[in-house]
Amino acid sequence: MDRWTEIELFVQTAELGSLTKAAENLEMSNAAASRHLTSLERRLAARLIERSTRRLYLTQVGEQFFRRCKDLLSEMKEAEADVSANVLEPAGTLTVTASLSFSMLHLAPLIPEFTERYPKVSVNIVAANRYYDIMDSGIDLAIRTREFEPDSNLTVRRLAQMRRVLAASPRYLERKGMPRTIEDLASHAMLIYSYANRPNELTFSRDEVQQTINVRSTLESNDGQVLRAAALNGMGILVQPKYIVYDDIVAGRLVPVLDDWDLPRLTVNIAFQTRTHLPARVRLFIEFLVDHFHQMDYERKWTT
Predict the structure, then answer these.
(1) InterPro entries, per this entry (predicted)?
(2) Alpha-carbon gap, residue 154 to 138, rounded angstroms
């Protein structure tokens, strides 16, 4: 019991930045809290926290121990919740990060159904067009468009492959004409996603032929919704993953350009921390999302 108390005290002290506040949360005296922390450091033969009258901070080994202990306590609380409910009923906050476009189009519309199914779960969507460090940012899972994760502590589960397409509004194409060849793009207004790999370089392939060209952007943005709005307003030809513009193409608001050529395809994945036992809320949301993508047949729609 003392070991669990020591670990819980250590984690709360690190999170709150105060031994006094941690002691208050655990309903123990400052003297008792100090003894527990000293006992933990003595048992580990390592200094975990540097403390003075003015500030408190974790040592390097303390940072490493904190991350492990935080995960351990989280799993313990999840296990207790499961036992007390006598079922694997998910609870707590699920934090998901994805691009703004994916969050708007494919996360936010699903949350009502998920939270109705699991009412004890609340969802926090972190919409960002950059990749957060899952281990250090309190993220449960991330939706990403890359084949692998450089961190071996992460597990990747594939959702769907998709094409990147060029598309423009009928109004723009009436005014500027439909490009018939790749070289024709040089005379068109291009709407470019600035976070893409080599955003102003497009590599097309068809059959055994491959051709790379450089394009000049009329508008660059780090968000696909900005480019989509510009394209819908007739500003130019965008280059975006098909999941962003699929509905616009089906409705005729945007028209594919040079659709017989293929750009390098993307794979949308779920990335999450590798654990022997995932928290129920994380595991169930992953299965929920995978099932939804399968039912909607997104890969077929986005690769044709």
Answers:
(1) LysR-type_TF_proteobact-type (IPR058163), LysR_HTH_N (IPR000847), LysR_subst-bd (IPR005119), WH-like_DNA-bd_sf (IPR036388), WH_DNA-bd_sf (IPR036390)
(2) 14
CA gap 291, 55 in Å, rounded:
49
Q: How does pLDDT run along the chain (304 residues), one tens digit per residue? A: 478 888 889 998 988 888 888 889 888 898 888 889 899 899 889 899 987 767 788 999 989 999 888 888 877 777 666 665 544 578 889 999 999 999 999 999 999 999 999 999 999 999 988 776 776 677 899 998 865 556 667 888 899 999 999 999 999 999 999 999 999 999 999 999 998 888 899 999 998 899 999 999 999 999 999 999 999 999 999 999 999 999 999 999 999 999 999 999 999 999 888 776 778 889 899 999 999 999 999 999 999 9
Cα separation of 218 and 197, whole Å? 18
Domains delineated in the chain: 2-85 (1.10.10.10), 92-160+267-303 (3.40.190.10), 164-264 (3.40.190.290)
28: Cα separation from own chain's centroid: 39
**Bridge partner list, 61:** none
